[in-house]
Each structure stands twice: as structure tokens, then as C-alpha cells.
Design brief:
Blueprint: H1 2-40, H2 43-48, E1 58-65, E2 72-80, E3 86-95, H3 99-105, E4 111-115, E5 118-124, E6 127-128, H4 129-137, H5 158-163, E7 167-179, E8 185-196, E9 203-210, E10 215-222, E11 228-238, H6 243-246, E12 254-267, H7 274-277, E13 284-297, E14 306-320, E15 323-332, E16 336-344, H8 346-350, E17 358-365, H9 366-372, E18 383-399, E19 402-418, E20 421-425, E21 430-438, E22 441-450, E23 454-461, E24 465-473, H10 474-484, E25 491-505, E26 508-525, E27 528-544, E28 550-558, E29 562-571, E30 580-588, H11 589-593, E31 602-617, E32 620-636, E33 642-659, E34 664-673, E35 677-686, E36 689-699, H12 700-711, E37 715-718, E38 720-729, E39 735-742, E40 744-747, E41 750-752, E42 755-762, E43 765-768, E44 771-775, E45 778-782, E46 785-787, E47 794-797, E48 800-807, H13 810-820, E49 829-844, E50 852-865, H14 868-884, E51 901-903, E52 906-913, E53 916-926, E54 929-938, E55 943-950, H15 953-956, E56 969-976, E57 981-983, H16 986-995, H17 998-1018
Parallel strand pairs: 4-7, 5-7
Antiparallel strand pairs: 1-2, 2-3, 3-4, 3-5, 5-6, 7-8, 8-9, 9-10, 10-11, 11-12, 12-13, 13-14, 14-15, 15-16, 16-17, 17-18, 18-19, 19-20, 19-21, 21-22, 22-23, 23-24, 24-25, 25-26, 26-27, 27-28, 28-29, 29-30, 30-31, 31-32, 32-33, 33-34, 34-35, 35-36, 36-38, 37-40, 38-39, 39-42, 40-41, 42-43, ...
């Protein structure tokens, strides 16, 4: 029995062993095929998703060839940015490591091969998509080393790991650069490269073909002498492709042209500073670049682009005897040539002004420059510069114990034609200087300038005693320049002289006497004009070049607009010597305001006098401020010089501190006091960071004219209140809060209860909290925003209901509604209400007449007693009614004046633009007569309206001779002003001629014509 069981168990054990064998085989197969399965399944995508950090984008591949012993190959590789836009792609990426090498042996990377890689760069003025990705990826920390036992035999020897570096091969690559600002696209094809990091320096060979027909080649590697050698060759490179990158520095840059050239650099040792490497034996560089058809424009170059046919830049330099010998460094264009040579030590390379052996010569063909860069030399209309040269030379030569410095500047033979007239200016400027610098200081061998508008003569031993004088005639200079060049809005006038005496050393300057005066000074540039009949500057000055210490025992500047006198002034930026000094200041606000060449708006009047006392406070310079404004006022030039705010005296007191090391300015308890307002201000300014807080106590009754000058005459505020504010941040990031209450107000004649404007400052704007106040049995709702930056400041209101259910009064009709509904002008008795909705409002505070708004005015069952102007309209309408009814129109003149004018529920569309209020859809009734109005009313109360009076059917019923008037509208233009309106009478005559026919009609027309003559004579 037991044997039988034993025999029965044998098949079961065999089956188990077979299962184990099969399972083991399956495991082995899965292990062997695992890399292949990963490459063919979504596991590949899961692994690639971990290449970039979360939120930095993603990497995808169409397929992957993975094996335990075969190289890793990814095909159809794509890299996407965080916005899922394609950034880079490659047909294939291969490395010479297998999965076994990556996971187990840790064999160093040997070769990387990129087939068909393409990079799609989008460049903005503030960066690019590639930089955005790199910023998100950030520097990745190296993983900690994995400790392995020497006995496991898997880790390669450290020396082998350190010795092996990868090589990179790029085949058939491409680059596309999109200029996000202009939409221009630049492409490079046939990009190929080999990079071998195993040599020192690395061997690099790069070739590319910038489209359309360019070529670029760069090679680096060891030189025959054991140093490094770099070669560059470029042909037909489009400079426009550089513009997207250059606009990071200036957004107005536009560049075009073709660059070609080649150059070589050989150096034995690049360690340390470049200035040191450039003087070591073995350093040499030579080459030449050329730009054809250069065209450049930028804000600093003026409105017209600079066009140069060609630019050449050849150079040749080498190291010899511990110095860099520049044999040739030239810049040549058809308009200018600059040639330089010299020998420089490492220290002189870092500061070229200390060079002891250098020669620079430049010449400019002014006629060619005026043609190629008209913005730099803008000629007068009809004037052509035929000839002219500007020559400059600078030379430094070594002498025993120092060096000599010489220089010359001269212009020659300026010659032009203005039509048939010849203009010449022979030798307008000739200047020369010669200095000797040694351990004892600087000796002025001579400084002289000779021109008919300027003479300068300086002489003496600078370290002991030197003196000089100058005379200038700005009128003559302006006269000469105006013959040739278009000075535009620039004006220059005045004549004067200056003298000085003192010493000059390498460490500083000390002038014991400075005396300059100008008569009839007048300088005007766009936006500013300074005109002073007399300008005087006198005093002494000491300046330490190393510490920046400035000292003056006494100095003064006197003009008609501003003047100051300083005594015992000392300021040391390093804080080593205590600051001190006293400054007395006087300013004429009206004359300073006149410096603005654009008149208009609010202008200050009055005098400011006071003192600033300087003192040292720890590591900062402190100034006690005490200024008094006398008879200060603001006048509104746009309102014929009306005074909108005035104070007999305004006093400003407080303390200001300046820390030179940090550039921080502190304001301590600055107070302003006057009759209508008083305030305090404290805080600091450091670089662009602002931190201010303060309060203002004000009397709104005295400030109402000023508020009306900015926001319009319809707003009046009352109350003695205190406003508070606080600011912090920089530029567009400036933020803060404010609150300004009032006791009562009048809004276009409507009473308003107490309230407050409050809100936040952010993003360069002041944003108020929503306002919802009771006004004239209705309500006023809005949420103002005041834009602070960029200038000019602008007030805006959002779209929505502004007034709701507000009762109409004679005041609101006169101050607001008459501009939208002229029929309400001058109304003396009113009944009804109105609502107003806008589609948004903008009001530039520097020019309130540029108010812009569109909206709808809803009038709810209004009846009014019309004013004189509308009464005349009603009388005219009754004449039309009489004519239409074949009655005597003169009889209508004897009817009593209308008692009521009614407006049924109407919605009037309006818009404000260019200082005028346009409307349509206004209709009012007087008895049987309907009158429609449309057109515009100026903010200056001028009229450009059209009255439309429809001929009603019941007027002509039963009158066969007047049937032609049925359905007609009489349109009467109205011009003039509210005070003096003018109605155009020609519409009556036109209507009569067009509608009356036949003999009977002719008789009626004659009678009507006579009646009209009497009618308008009587009016």
C-alpha cells in the first residue's frame, strides 16, 4: 500500500519541478527582455517624464532601443516647455553605454551622438524660452557617492573614471530663432560639431550654415607649442539675427547688414585675468572683420537710421617683454577712420587712461557722416554739406620718471551749398593740450583752444600753481551751426567768461578761485527752456579723487530763478571726516515754472527762501531743512490764469539723512504747514525702494478750486479732515494704502453726505474702494482708479451705473445735464429724475479737457420751466406749427411764453471726446410740438446742434394745399454759445420751396416768405 502511494506521488513531484523550471525560464526571459519591453511600452514615457523637474516641461520619444549589452538609442526625441510648446527635437540620440553599464557597471560615458537635432528658440526682450526652462531646471545637486566594496569587482578604478570624458558628435542639426517682438525668424542649417573633452583645451570643431547663404566655422584645440588655439571664420552672417538679443539692452535697437571675417587667437596660458594672460609669451591674435550695408537704428541715434556702406576692423597684437604690443587696431568706414597702436602693461590694460605708450588718430569726413547718419548731423532743409573734416590725435610717450600726454582737435574747411548760396566756416575749432605727468604731479605745458566763439588758455605747474581763463560767445556758435544744421527746437544764446586758479595733482584738485558769468543765457531743448538775463558762479572748490571728499569755504550761484550761497561746506562720502555746511536758498517758483517750454495746466507762483544745515550723524550726512514759501499760489493757465489755490505762507521743516555707503535717503518728521493744509512725512528711499508714511490735515473748502481744476467744476467738498497714507516697494511694485474723508459735498449741485475715498496703491495705480453714497434722493456708485505710472496721471471709472434715480434740480441741470440734454439749460423749475450709465471713463489730469466717456442718460418723466435759450427754441417751434397749419406765424409771437417743457421717459446716448459732448435721442414736448435735438456741446459751452421739428399729420389735415408737408421734418442748425445761440433761418425757406406747389401754393409761399421776414425782423 505504501509503495503504491510512493509511486503515486512521483508524477505530482515531476509536475512541480516542471512548473518551477518553466517559471524560472520565464523570469530569465523577462529579465533578458526587460530593456526591450521598457522601450516598447509606456514605461519608457514614465522614465522620460522624470528627466525634467515637475512643472519644467516634458521629454518624449517615439521609440527606444534598449538592451543589456547594446548601446542606448532614443528615436524621435522631443522636449517641450512648460506651456507644452516644442523647444527641441532630435531624430536620434545615442550613447555608447548599455543598460548594464548604466545600472550596474557605472562605466563612464564615452560618446554621445545627436542626429538631426533642432532647437526652436523664442527670444523676448526679457529672456527666451530656453532660459525659462534652464531657470526651472536650476542647478541640480550631484547625487551622493554610492559606497561599494572593493571585493564586488563592479566599480572601475578611480583613475580610470577621472581620465575618461565624453565626446559629443552633432550631425545635421538646425537652429531656429523667433523674434517674439517683430515676428522675424532666423534659421541655421547644416549644424555639425565634434567636441572632444579629453584634450586640454578641449577640441571643438563647429560648422553651420546661417540662412540664406552664410557660413560659420569655429575650431579650438591645443597649439603646436602646447597652448591653446582658436580660429573663427564667418561669411555672410546676417546682423539682423543679433537684434533680438541686443534688444535686452535697448528695446529700440534695429540692426541690419552682412558680417564676414576671420580671426585667430593663440595663447599658452589662459589662467587668471585676461589682462595678465595677454602679456604672457605665446599670446598673439590677428584678424579682420567687415560689415557691408550696415543699417542701425535706436532711440539714441535719432529718428533716421544710420547707414554705412562698409565697416572694416583689422587687428594685430602680440605679447612681448611682459607687455601687450598692439601693432594695428583700426576702424575704417567711408565716413571715419580710427587708427591706434601702443604698448600696454597688465595694469594699463585694466585702466587705459594710465597708458604710457599709445597713439590714437581719428579723422571724420563730416560730409559723408551727414549723408550716412542724418540723425547725428541733421542738415537744414535744402542744405548739403560738401566738405568738412574733424581730426583728433592723442599720444602718450614715456619719459624718465613719467610720461607726456599730448592731444589735438581741429575741424577744417566746412563747406556747404544752400540752393545757389555757398556757405563756409574755415577752421572753426583748433584745440591743443600738452601735459607732463611725473611723481611730482602734473605740469600743464599748455592748454589752448582758438575759435571765434571760444578761447581757452591754461598754463602753469599744476602741482604748484596754475591759472586759466576762457571766453565764449554762444550766440556766435548758434549762428554758425544754424547755417549748416537743423537745430530744431534747440536754442543757444549768451556770452560770458570764466577764470580759475589752483592746483592739480594725481590725488585731487584744489581751485582757490572759480569765477564765471554769463549774460543773456538762453538754452532751449525739447520740453525745457532756461532763459536767464544774468548767471553768476563764484567760489572755491577742493576735490579728493580717492575719497571723493568735496570742500568749499564759500560758493554761490545766482540767477533770476534760483540762487544759493554755501559756506564751510564739507562732504566726505567715506564718512572719515564729519560733514558740515550751511546753504541759503532762494527760488522764484514762477520763473522756474517758465523753464517748462510747454505752457498750460497748473503753474506755481511765489517765492521760496530758507536754509539747509548740513551735519554728520553717525555714518550718514544729515540736513536740517527749513524752507518758507511766501505768497504761494497755483494758477490754471487753461482758465485764463485763474487762481485755484493760494497761501500767504507755506513752511516746510524737517530732517533728511543720506548714507553714502548704501545710497539710502531717510526723511524724518518732515512737516508742511499752511492755512489750508498741514502734513507730516517720514520714511526712506534706498535705490529704487520706497517706504513712506504720512498724513495731511486739510480744509476742503479752501482746496475746492484746486480740486475743480483737476476734476471739473461740478465737484465741491467741505470739511476739515485728515488723510493718511503709506507707501512701500519700487516702481510698478509700489504698494500702499490711503484714506481721505470729507464731511459733506456737492456733486454737480446735488448734496452728498459724509464719506471717504480710500483704497490701495498697487501696480503703478491708486485703486479706490467702491463708492456708494446717497445723492439727491438717489445714489451715486463707482470705483475710481488713478493711474500714477506711466505719466501723465489718468483717472478712470469702470463701466456701469453712475447715477441711479437722482432728482433733477436747476443746479444739476446747469452744471451737468445741459451738456447731454441742452433743453435743460437754464431751467428754473424742475420735476423728475435721471439715471446715468457709462461704458467707462478716462480723464487725463494734466489736461481735463481730454475727458473721454461714452454712456446713456435716462430721463424719467421730467417737466421743467425752460430757460431763455430753450424758450426761443419753443417760440421757433410754434412758428413752424403756425406755418404748417396755414396760420399767421407772427401771431405765435404774441402767445405767452411756455410754462412747462416735458420729457417723457427717454434714453439719450452720449459720448465725450476732444472737449465736446455729443448726444442723440433727446426729445421734448411743448404743447402739441415735438422737438428732437442732436449734436454736440463743447465744454467751453459752444453749440453745434440740430433741432428737428416733425410736421404732425393733424396739423395739415383738411388742408389740400399743405398736403406736401405731411411727414416732413424741419431741421434747424443751432450754433453760438449757451449765452448767445444762433438759429439758422434758411431751413424755413428750404422747406417752403420744397413742399408748396402750384399757383395757390406760390401765393402761400409768398405770404409765408413775408411772414418769415417779419418774424426774423421781430426776433
Amino acid at each position: 500500500m505504501r509503495g503504491w502511494r510512493a509511486n503515486a506521488d512521483k508524477p505530482r513531484g515531476g509536475r512541480l519541478r516542471r512548473r518551477l523550471v518553466i517559471g524560472l525560464v520565464l523570469v530569465v526571459v523577462l529579465v533578458v527582455l526587460a530593456p526591450t519591453l521598457v522601450g516598447l511600452t509606456p514605461l519608457k514615457d514614465a522614465l522620460l517624464a522624470r528627466v525634467l523637474p515637475a512643472g519644467a516641461g516634458r521629454v518624449a520619444a517615439r521609440s527606444a532601443e534598449l538592451g543589456w549589452t547594446s548601446p542606448v538609442v532614443l528615436k524621435g526625441v522631443e522636449v517641450f516647455d512648460p506651456q507644452d510648446q516644442l523647444l527641441a527635437s532630435a531624430d536620434a540620440v545615442a550613447i555608447d553605454l548599455s543598460v548594464w553599464d548604466l545600472l550596474v557597471s557605472k562605466r563612464p560615458l564615452g560618446a554621445i551622438r545627436l542626429e538631426g537635432p533642432r532647437l526652436m528658440a523664442v527670444v523676448r526682450p526679457d529672456g527666451s524660452n530656453l532660459e525659462d526652462l534652464l531657470a526651472l531646471v536650476g542647478p541640480q545637486a550631484d547625487p551622493p557617492p554610492v559606497a561599494q566594496s572593493p571585493a564586488d569587482g563592479l566599480a572601475p578604478p578611480p583613475s580610470a573614471t577621472a581620465a575618461r570624458k565624453p565626446t559629443i558628435e552633432i550631425i545635421g542639426g538646425g537652429l531656429q530663432v523667433l523674434d517674439a517682438e517683430t515676428g522675424a525668424v532666423w534659421q541655421w542649417d547644416a549644424v555639425g560639431a565634434t567636441i572632444d573633452l579629453n584634450s586640454q583645451p578641449p577640441k571643438i570643431a563647429l560648422q553651420a550654415r546661417p540662412l540664406p547663404d552664410g557660413a560659420l566655422s569655429v575650431t579650438t584645440g591645443p597649439s603646436e607649442t602646447g597652448g591653446a588655439e582658436v580660429s573663427l571664420s564667418a561669411q555672410n552672417m546676417q546682423l539682423a539675427s543679433l537684434a533680438p538679443w541686443l534688444r535686452r539692452f535697448d528695446r529700440t535697437i534695429r540692426l541690419d547688414g552682412v558680417l564676414s571675417g576671420s580671426g585667430q587667437l593663440m595663447v599658452n596660458d589662459l589662467s587668471g585675468r585676461l589682462a595678465d594672460a595677454a602679456v604672457r609669451d605665446g599670446f598673439a591674435t590677428r584678424g579682420s572683420l567687415r560689415i557691408d550695408r550696415l543699417q542701425a537704428s535706436a532711440a539714441g541715434l535719432g529718428p533716421a537710421p544710420v547707414r554705412v556702406l562698409s565697416v572694416e576692423l583689422p587687428w594685430n597684437a602680440r605679447a612681448a617683454g611682459g607687455r601687450l604690443v598692439v601693432q594695428q587696431l583700426w576702424l575704417r568706414t567711408p565716413a571715419a577712420t580710427i587708427e591706434s597702436s601702443g604698448s600696454l602693461s597688465p595694469s594699463q590694460l585694466r585702466d587705459l587712461t594710465t597708458a604710457t605708450q599709445a597713439d590714437v588718430r581719428a579723422s571724420v569726413d563730416l560730409a559723408a557722416l551727414a549723408e550716412q547718419a542724418p540723425s547725428l548731423l541733421p542738415m537744414r532743409a535744402g542744405t548739403r554739406l560738401e566738405a568738412g573734416q574733424l581730426r583728433l590725435s592723442l599720444a602718450a610717450k614715456p619719459i624718465s620718471g613719467g610720461r607726456t600726454l599730448t592731444g589735438t582737435l581741429q575741424t577744417e574747411d566746412l563747406h556747404a551749398h544752400a540752393g545757389d548760396r555757398e556757405i563756409t566756416w574755415d577752421h572753426p575749432v583748433q584745440a591743443h593740450f600738452a601735459l607732463t605727468q611725473s611723481a611730482q604731479g602734473v605740469a600743464i605745458d599748455g592748454v589752448r583752444c582758438d575759435a571765434d566763439f571760444l578761447t581757452i588758455d591754461a598754463r602753469g605747474a599744476a602741482t604748484q600753481s596754475m591759472e586759466g581763463d576762457a571766453r565764449f560767445d554762444l550766440d556766435r556758435l548758434a549762428e554758425h551751426l544754424a547755417q549748416f544744421f537743423d537745430l530744431g527746437q534747440t536754442r543757444l544764446a549768451g556770452a560770458g567768461s570764466a577764470t580759475f586758479a589752483g592746483t592739480l595733482t594725481p590725488g585731487g584738485a584744489r581751485f582757490s578761485k572759480i569765477d564765471a558769468n554769463v549774460d543773456g543765457f538762453d538754452l532751449a531743448v525739447p520740453g525745457v527752456r532756461v532763459a536767464e538775463p544774468k548767471l553768476l558762479l563764484q567760489g572755491d572748490l577742493g576735490w579728493d579723487f580717492s575719497t571723493g571728499l568735496i570742500e568749499s569755504q564759500e560758493s554761490q550761484l545766482v540767477t533770476s530763478a534760483v540762487a544759493y550761497r554755501a559756506r564751510r561746506l564739507r562732504f566726505d562720502p567715506t564718512g572719515q571726516q564729519p560733514a558740515e555746511g550751511e546753504l541759503a536758498i532762494r527760488a522764484d517758483l514762477a520763473r522756474m515754472a517758465a523753464w517748462r517750454s510747454t505752457a498750460g495746466g497748473l503753474e506755481p507762483q511765489g517765492q521760496v527762501v530758507g536754509r539747509l544745515m548740513l551735519r554728520q550723524q553717525g555714518d550718514r550726512l544729515a540736513a536740517d531743512v527749513d524752507l518758507t514759501g511766501q505768497s504761494v499760489s497755483l494758477i490754471d493757465r487753461s482758465r485764463a490764469g485763474a487762481v485755484v489755490w493760494s497761501e500767504p505762507e507755506v513752511r516746510l521743516r524737517g530732517a533728511v539723512g543720506y548714507t553714502p555707503q548704501s545710497g539710502r535717503i531717510d526723511v524724518s518728521d518732515m512737516r508742511v504747514e499752511s492755512r489750508s493744509l498741514a502734513g507730516t512725512l517720514s520714511g526712506s528711499l534706498a535705490d529704487t525702494q520706497i517706504e513712506l508714511r504720512g498724513s495731511v490735515d486739510y480744509d476742503l473748502a479752501n482746496l475746492s478750486p484746486l480740486i475743480a481744476a483737476r476734476l471739473g467744476p461740478g465737484i465741491e467738498l467741505v470739511g476739515r479732515k485728515q488723510a493718511r497714507f503709506e507707501l512701500a516697494g519700487a516702481g510698478a511694485d509700489l504698494s500702499g494704502r490711503f484714506q481721505a474723508p470729507w464731511d459733506s459735498a456737492s456733486l454737480y449741485g446735488l448734496p452728498v453726505g459724509p464719506g471717504a475715498i480710500q483704497g490701495v496703491i498697487a501696480g503703478g495705480a491708486l485703486r479706490c474702494d467702491p463708492l456708494n453714497v446717497a445723492v439727491g434722493e438717489g445714489k451715486f456708485t463707482t470705483q475710481p482708479t488713478l493711474r500714477l505710472q506711466p505719466a501723465p496721471m489718468e483717472l478712470s471709472l469702470p463701466a456701469g451705473d453712475l447715477f441711479s434715480g437722482v432728482r433733477i434740480t436747476p443746479e444739476v441741470s446747469e452744471k451737468l445735464l445741459k451738456y447731454i440734454a441742452p433743453a435743460l439749460q437754464g431751467a428754473t423749475q424742475t420735476d423728475g429724475a435721471f439715471s446715468m450709465r457709462t461704458d467707462g471713463l478716462t480723464l487725463p489730469l494734466d489736461d481735463p479737457k481730454k475727458l473721454s466717456v461714452t454712456g446713456q442718460l435716462a430721463i424719467h418723466g421730467v417737466t421743467v420751466m425752460p430757460g431763455p435759450m430753450v424758450g426761443d427754441w419753443v417760440s421757433t417751434a410754434r412758428q413752424v406749427e403756425a406755418l404748417a397749419k396755414n396760420q399767421d406765424p407772427l401771431a405765435a409771437l404774441n402767445k405767452p411764453a411756455p410754462t412747462l417743457l416735458s420729457v417723457r421717459d427717454r434714453v439719450i446716448e452720449f459720448r465725450v471726446a476732444e472737449g465736446r459732448v455729443y448726444h442723440r435721442g433727446m426729445q421734448f414736448e411743448v404743447g402739441d410740438v415735438l422737438v428732437n435735438t442732436e449734436g454736440s456741446v463743447g465744454l467751453d459751452e459752444t453749440l453745434a446742434l440740430t433741432l428737428t421739428i416733425p410736421i404732425q399729420d393733424r396739423w395739415v389735415e383738411g388742408k389740400p394745399l399743405l398736403v406736401g408737408l405731411r411727414g416732413q421734418n424741419l431741421q434747424l442748425p443751432v450754433t453760438g454759445t449757451f449765452d448767445k445761440p444762433r438759429v439758422d433761418r434758411r431751413a424755413f425757406e428750404s422747406l417752403t420751396r420744397d413742399t408748396v406747389r402750384g399757383a395757390a401754393g406760390q401765393a402761400i409761399e409768398n405770404e409765408v416768405g413775408k411772414a418769415l421776414e417779419k418774424l426774423f425782423r421781430s426776433k
